[in-house]
Design a protein that fits this description.
There is one protein chain. This protein has one domain: Beta-carbonic Anhydrase, Chain A (3-Layer(aba) Sandwich), CATH 3.40.1050.10. A hairpin with a 2-residue loop joins strand 4 and strand 5. The radius of gyration is 17 Å and the shape is elongated. Strands 2-1-3-5-4 form a five-stranded mixed β-sheet, sandwiched between helices. By secondary structure, it is an alpha/beta fold. 43% of the residues lie in helices and 12% in strands. Bound molecules: zinc ion.
C-alpha cells in the first residue's frame, strides 16, 4: 500500500468534501449554530444550503467547529423540526454527517446504511425528508476504502449482510474505466464503485421527479447532491 493511501483512509470523507470548492460567506438566511426554523428552512435555496454544508466541512477540517448549546437545541426542536438537508451516508463510523459538516440538532436528516445505497425503504425516508418535512437538498456521501463496497466487490456472504451487499451490485457493473482486478485489492476499483453508488442513488426516479442534480467528481471520491427544484445542474 502506498503511504498516500494510508492517509486517505484515515479521513475518508473529509478528503472528498473538503475539496468541493472555495468557501463563500454563509447565506444571510442562515445564522451559524442557531436552530433551524420554518422561516430559515423556507428562505434558504439549495445552492445556499450546499454553501452552508461546505462551510461547515471547512470548519471541521480546520478544527474550528462552532460552539453549540445542544441542550437548548433539544428544547427548541421539541415541537417541530425544519432541517435544511438530508444526507444519505454509509454506516462507517468515520463519516458522521453532523460532525463532518459541523451541524447541530435539527439541521440534517441522516439516513445511514452500509454502502450508502438507496433501496425502497431509504427512498421512502428521503421522500419524507424532502416532500413532507421540507429539506431542500439530498446529499449522497460516499467515502474512500468503504468496507461494504469491498465486501460487495469480493462477493462476501454473511447472514443478512449478503442481502445488504446485493444492493450494491448495480454499482459493481457501472464502475468503468478501471484497470486491474475488480476486487477489494484494487483501491481504484473500490473507489470507482463508490462513485457509481452515488450516481445510482441520485438517479432514483422517485427523487429525480422532483429534484435537480448537483454533481462533483472529486479526486479520490465524490459528493453528489440533489435538490428539489427540478432542473439539472452539474
Ligand atoms: Zn462505507
Amino acid at each position: 500500500m502506498k503511504p498516500a493511501r494510508k492517509h486517505r483512509r484515515a479521513l475518508p470523507a473529509v478528503v472528498a468534501v473538503a475539496s468541493l470548492g472555495c468557501m463563500t460567506l454563509a447565506p444571510l438566511a442562515y445564522a451559524q449554530a442557531t436552530t433551524q426554523t420554518r422561516a430559515t428552512q423556507s428562505a434558504l435555496t439549495p445552492d445556499q444550503i450546499l454553501e452552508v454544508l461546505k462551510a461547515g466541512n471547512e470548519r471541521f477540517v480546520s478544527g474550528q467547529m462552532l460552539e453549540r448549546d445542544l441542550r437548548s437545541q433539544i428544547r427548541e426542536t421539541a415541537n417541530g423540526q425544519y432541517p435544511m438537508a438530508a444526507v444519505l451516508d454509509c454506516l462507517d463510523s468515520r463519516v458522521p454527517p453532523e460532525l463532518v459538516f459541523d451541524m447541530g440538532i435539527g439541521d440534517l436528516f441522516v439516513g445511514r446504511v452500509a454502502g450508502n445505497y438507496a433501496d425502497t425503504d431509504m427512498l421512502g425516508s428521503l421522500e419524507f425528508a424532502t416532500k413532507v418535512a421540507g429539506a431542500k437538498v439530498v446529499l449522497v456521501l460516499g467515502h474512500t476504502d468503504c468496507g461494504a463496497v469491498k465486501g460487495a466487490c469480493d462477493g462476501v456472504k454473511l447472514g443478512n449482510l449478503t442481502h445488504t451487499l446485493s444492493n450494491l451490485t448495480p454499482a459493481l457493473y457501472a464502475a468503468g474505466g478501471v484497470t486491474g482486478p475488480r476486487t477489494s485489492k484494487n483501491h481504484e476499483f473500490v473507489d470507482a464503485v463508490t462513485r457509481a453508488l452515488e450516481k445510482v442513488a441520485a438517479g432514483e426516479t422517485s427523487l429525480r421527479e422532483v429534484t435537480r442534480l448537483f454533481w462533483s467528481a472529486l479526486g479520490d471520491t465524490s459528493v453528489l447532491a440533489v435538490d428539489v427544484n427540478g432542473e439539472d445542474s452539474s
